[in-house]
Every structure is written in C-alpha cells, then in structure tokens.
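Exam revision sheet. Question 4 asks you to relate a sequence to its structure. Input first:
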Amino acid sequence: MSEWLAGLKLVFDGAGTLYRHWLERRDPIRAQARRVLDVFTAHGVAPTQICRLLPEQFPIPMPDFASPRALKAHLSPALLNWVSEYFALNRSWLDGVSGEPHQLLCCYKCPLDFARWLADHRSGEPFQFRLFVLKPSNRPVSRDSDEDIVLTLEERIAYLDDRPIYRYYLFDGNGPLSHYPVVRSMLGMCVVADRAGCLVKGRVLSHRDCDAIESGHLTVPQGLRKSRASWEPDSLLFQSPDNDSPWQAQLRADILEDLSAPTPNHLNDE
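Answer key, structure tokens:
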C-alpha cells in the first residue's frame, strides 16, 4: 500500500509541475514572480521574511509573497533591479531571457584584478567574504589532478535575527585542474583571499552539480546545500617550500610573479 501511495504521489507531483510550467509559459510575468520567490528561497529567506529585507519603497503586503499569482501584480523594473543587485544576479536572468543567474568576476589569470575588486567592495567587517572552490572529491590538488573546479565568492550582506544572508559571484576560468593555468589562477585567488582576510574553503559537490552551476541550472547556494564534505584548496601553499617538488616550486614562483607584476605577461598562455 505504501508503495502504491508513493507512486500516486509522484504522479500528482509530476502533474502539478507540468501544470505550473504550462501556466508560466502562458504567463511570463507569473513565471518572473516565481523566479523572484525562488531567489529568496535559494538564499535562505522564507516568504514570511522577505518584507524584512525590502526597502520601504516596496510596501508589498506580506500575504502577497505567498504565491507567484499574488506577487506578479507588484513586479516593477525598480523591484527587479533591486533583487538582482541585492543578490548579485543578472537582471536578464530574472527576466527569463538568459540562462546565467550569477554575475561573473573576470579574474582568470589575473589574481591582482581580484585583489582590486576586494579592495573596492570590502566593508571592513570580519569574514565578509569566503572564497569557495567546488569539485567532485576531497583529494588535494596535485600535479596529477584531473577534476574540474568551480570558483565562487560568497559575500555576507545582511542578518535575519542571528542568521547571515549571503550573495554569490562566479569566477571565469573554471575548468580542469589538469590544465596548469587553471591551477595557477585558482591558487593565486586563494593567496589574494588569504592576504585580504577572507576565508578559503573547499566543498565537495558531484560532477553533475558542478556542471549545473556552471551552466546556470543550479544556483550556488542551492549547490552548497548539497555539499557533504570539505577539502583545503590551498593546503600545498602552506607546506614548507623546502619540501616542494619541481612542479610545486614552479607553481609558487608563477603565483608570486602574478601577484607582483602590474600586468601579467602570460594572459595568452594556453
């Protein structure tokens, strides 16, 4: 009987999903309202809490956050601009015309650009930022690594009671650790983060989930909630240089060059 009920529930859930998609294809404004509500949920904000974050210029009654149908009457360019800026999202994604939700930090092979970005955006509060490196296992980085990585930056932007609220950025230059410039760039970002007082964390996410984040089918906070293990992205930088292999010594020298040269001279390296 329990299996029969479980199967029946799957049928009803699937029918409900198809009906919702049909409604949203017919009504793109309702779909946009759904996307706004999903954004808050993905970032850990319940519908009953949204009013606490909105500026006074958006006096939306709390009951109208209960459903896309109720919220769509309150959508405006100003509200959508605020949501996209507050959570560092692409406005075109909120509009349903782009598949890339997160804003991109273009710092590949240029860790000094990341340092400048942090200097421009730091508030002075401790632990405002965390640099996350996502990959499918907790194996440390080595010359033989062949996994793909995804770099993302977490920024604390508010508190609800004692619980922090974050927004997320993606970095360009994600790819396989077997490609030396990817390792070099990633570890350069880790050094920049460490010097700026930002925490550096590694999280284990399935290859499928990493791909979904990269392709825009999964937001970063949704992906982080699926992580069940951690690793240390910058561990090889904290061992004694006396124990470096030739590969590690070259990597350390290249990172030092990247962080000291005003204009890195390897931008065209492949």
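Marking note for examiners. Residues 13-19, 263-270 have pLDDT under 50 and may be disordered.
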